UniProtKB/TrEMBL annotation:
GO terms for molecular function: ATP binding; histidine-tRNA ligase activity. It catalyses: tRNA(His) + L-histidine + ATP = L-histidyl-tRNA(His) + AMP + diphosphate + H(+). This is Histidine--tRNA ligase. PANTHER family: HISTIDINE--TRNA LIGASE, MITOCHONDRIAL-RELATED, HISTIDYL-TRNA SYNTHETASE. Its main location: cytoplasm. Keywords: Aminoacyl-tRNA synthetase, ATP-binding, Cytoplasm, Ligase, Nucleotide-binding, Protein biosynthesis. CDD domains: HisRS-like_core, HisRS_anticodon. L-histidine binds at residues 82-84, 114, 128, 132, 257, 261-262.
Length: 420
């Protein structure tokens, strides 16, 4: 062990488990790539103001959890706590919305940082794959994103997840509801922090996990009773499209989520095997965000799915992904001449696309065969002086143990034949 450890709230992805993370990212990205979403990558840090304005000055993410710092040059930056604000910023900066081809559909994958109290499923560095559809107001787009996330989870074999759905209204109906809720909340017995929240972001109080708060919330005005006709009709269409696609969801009139920018459709994917950190992904419509960060009116919708929690969900359901062995062929040279010859064969196999590894470091036969077995390879190539004297390499089937001599210059072809 070195003197250093991974910082608190972080962990390293190491082989062989790291392969599941790659597979999860790939499984989430596949339906997006297949549905017109282009890949976008933005910096790991942004101007801190972008998140303050975009995510919301009053959110926990911005007030408590952001890694904000000043550079030596005096720039005020923050490690990105989420993806949407950056992606929208990048799309606006590059004028992607002006190509006359709305919505701009983008997907991303990367690291995010929040200074949270670490626990299982909640880290200070975590990984998300996300999607954003910028510049169109169409219930089919909201439905598309939910359907694609559902498809991604199902392709991984996940079954014990639920989709919670709500509408947060728009700039016409939400303020009316907000006022009604504030009036109701002001009549409750709440601590000072929560009272402050009533002024800044009353909807967030509905999300309070404490029993003592939840009890008092019985009888609180519900947003769904305040939705304007447009929002109601929009939400009904999203629901119908999901139902028609065979995607089950639960109406959750209390779902608000921790970011300020959401309007209308809001959803969360929760997994029932994860305990308290049950949200594996979430998203929604953010029709006002573009204007909040100085752009034009661009109604948009998106989601982010957490890779770490998706991996935990797989574990909770006892699912092992079918990940092909990293190595198909393992070469074991015995002696200098064999090393030279087999290294050449290994290079040739790799160039032919066969996953091949080599016993480095002059290991003895026994150790080298152990490594061959551990690598998961199906075939070992073994050659000593006597084999080379006869112009052959032993091709050993590591499952059956059966071994056959094959002429040196026919090895690549024979291996490819055997691996099919
Ligand atoms: P949010 O942006 O908070 O809606 O997060 C979207 C998804 O990212 C969540 O559903 C989680 O799967 C994941 N996520 C958010 N915060 C964390 C964290 N601190 N540690 C691990 N995963 C997280």
């Amino acid at each position: 062990m070195s003197t250093f450890k991974a910082p608190k709230g972080t962990y390293d992805l190491l082989p062989p488990n790291s392969a599941s993370y790659l597979a999860v990212r790939e499984a989430i990205a596949a339906p997006l790539r297949n549905s017109g979403y282009g890949y976008i990558e933005t910096p790991g840090f942004e101007n801190v103001e972008l998140f303050a304005r975009g995510v919301g000055e009053s959110t926990d993410i911005v007030t408590k959890e952001m890694y904000a710092f000043e550079t030596k040059g005096g720039d005020r930056l923050a490690l990105r706590p989420e993806g949407t604000a950056s992606v929208l910023r990048a799309a606006l900066e590059a004028n992607l919305h002006k190509g006359g081809n709305l919505p701009v559909k983008l997907w991303y994958s990367g690291s995010y940082y929040r200074y949270e109290r670490p626990q299982k499923g909640r880290y200070r560095h975590f990984s998300q794959v996300g999607a954003e559809a910028i510049g169109a107001e169409d219930p089919a787009l909201d439905a598309e994103l939910i359907i694609l996330a559902d498809q991604a989870y199902r392709s991984l074999g996940l079954r014990d997840f639920r989709i919670l759905l709500n509408s947060l209204g728009d700039k016409t109906c939400r303020p009316v509801y907000r006022a009604a809720l504030q009036e109701f909340l002001r009549g409750l017995e709440l601590d000072e922090d929560t009272r402050r929240r009533i002024d800044i972001n009353p909807l967030r109080v509905l999300d309070d996990k404490r029993e003592s708060v939840q009890e008092q919330l019985i009888g609180a005005p519900m947003l769904r009773d305040y939705l304007c006709e447009e929002c109601k009709a929009y939400h009904e269409q999203v629901r119908e499209l999901l139902t028609a696609a065979g995607v089950a969801f639960e109406d959750d009139p209390k779902l608000v989520r921790g970011l300020d920018y959401y309007t209308r459709t809001t959803f969360e994917f929760v997994h029932d095997g994860l305990g308290s950190q049950s949200a594996v992904g979430g998203g929604g419509r953010y029709d006002g965000l573009s204007e909040m960060i100085g752009g034009p009116e661009l109604p948009s919708v998106g989601w982010a799915l957490g890779v770490d929690r998706t991996v935990l969900a797989l574990e909770a359901e006892g699912i092992t992904l079918d990940i092909p062995a990293a190595t198909a062929v393992y070469a074991v040279p015995l002696g200098e001449e064999a090393r030279r010859v087999l290294f050449g064969t290994v290079t040739e196999l790799r160039r032919a696309g066969v996953a091949t590894d080599f016993a480095y470091g002059g290991k003895g036969l026994k150790n080298a065969m152990k490594s061959a077995n551990r690598s998961g390879a199906r075939l070992a190539l073994v050659a000593g002086e006597r084999d080379l004297g006869e112009g052959v390499v032993q091709v050993k089937d590591l499952e059956s143990g059966e071994q056959t001599p094959v002429a040196v210059d026919a090895v690549v072809e024979e291996v490819r034949r055997r691996l099919g």
